[in-house]
Hints:
This protein has 15 helices and 16 strands. Mean pLDDT is about 85; it is low at about 425-430. The chain has four domains: about 1-30, no CATH class; about 35-50 and about 70-165 and about 190-225, HIV Type 1 Reverse Transcriptase, subunit A, domain 1 (HIV Type 1 Reverse Transcriptase, Chain A, domain 1, Roll), CATH 3.10.10.10; about 165-185 and about 225-325, Alpha-Beta Plaits (2-Layer Sandwich), CATH 3.30.70; about 325-420, no CATH class. The chain is an alpha+beta fold. It has helices at about 1-5, 10-25, 45-50, 55-65, 90-95, 105-110, 165-175, 225-235, 260-275, 285-290, 295-300, 325-340, 345-360, 370-385, 400-415; strands at about 35, 80, 100, 120, 130-135, 140-150, 175-185, 205, 210-215, 245-250, 250-255, 280-285, 305, 310-315, 320-325, 420. The strands form five sheets. The protein has a four-stranded antiparallel β-sheet, with helices on both faces. Strands 13-14-15-16 form a four-stranded antiparallel β-sheet. Helix 4 runs antiparallel to helix 8 and helix 13 (about 345-360) runs antiparallel to helix 14 (about 370-385).
Amino acid sequence: MIELYESEGNRSAAQEWTERLEKMAPNPRQWPLHLKNPTHVDLQGVLALPVAHSRTIDFLLTTYQYLHRDFYRGLRTSRTIKTTSLSMDDVRIGVEKGKFELAVELNRITEHTYRGDASFGRLPEGYHGVNSFYVLETKGRRRLITEPILNGVVEKESIPKVSYPSRLEKRQLLKHCRYMLQIDFNSYYDAIPLEDSVRNNFVFRGKDGQYYRLRTLPTGARWSVCVGQAITSTIVDIDVSQVVILSLIDNILIAAPQGSEGEFLCAVRSILTRIQQVHLETSPDRDTLLQTGDQDLLRMAEQSDVFLGEEYRYEPNEYVRKVRNSIKTVAKLRIAMRKAPYYTCRQFVSFVSLILFAAHTVNLNPASLFFLLKAYRAVYVTVCNTGGEWDAPLPHISPSVRALTAHHVCAGSERVRTHCASDTSDRRGP
């Protein structure tokens, strides 16, 4: 990241990353657990928001079933529960930040059983376990993951489908947008509360022998994506004509072409007001943005913007936004390349997926990726046929595959902007 920022002359960002690395503990276990304590969203307030399309409310009501106890009645999971890998310091932080709480009733029911240093416990009827652990982030912090055991009994086909514009469709929508403003929700899943009657479906056992339960939406639940997206979709569903509004769970992008400044500003302020009404916190801060003047907002929206791994920059001479891979995407590619040839199966397929993502941004001919896709498929087939572990070391990577990955990493790392749409002959003025 530092090298990439310095190569583009962004000394402030490079210095920020240098200071972050200097403060980073050498032992990843000592990295801070990334948890905030955001204000909980007003779920009934979201339901009361006026929307431009009735299907938005229909989708919201469908997803709200996962926030009520009736959905979980009759579901059965394993009664055995393993002690969490989280340290008690991490658990205490989770309690302080409002993510966890003591399962008082469950501890009372099981107080006659020996807990002590035993590795396993046994849950009574009406309780379901949740795997609580963390993953490391390159920012030098640990991200908490809570994965319900109920994932194994809730069929994927039963979960409401969430659809998004394709990358090509998204680029074409944004091609002529001079103004782009991105708003992110802070700790979004931690801002979506669970009713008291639902929390017993997500319990884990601490190293102190006590049982704890989640107070907010689990990050690793199959249905969390559709719940989060339904809330976001309801917030941004306003009546617009020239303004483009895109959202992906906790990311919102508001864009408009030159000549639509009035509608753009109206859309931005309308969405910020709706976010304020349901008590969600944002970055940049919603209240600060609401107090920002029109001209300052427009100047802010004219700057380069990164949305879902792609950087968009407006070219005033051509009246178009051009796209390239973000610095973070390029940094991930280079870091993954340094692991060669020592990958696990999971790491390798993730690496190939990232190469495909970056290649699509720079408009490479997908035919050149065919051989890499064959290697990608071979890993899947091997794991599925042998019943192997995804985190097992990949036994062998041929020199040709390694050379091909290196070639496409270099190509994807090129910070040259390309036109948002595939038809670059369409050059429309204001």
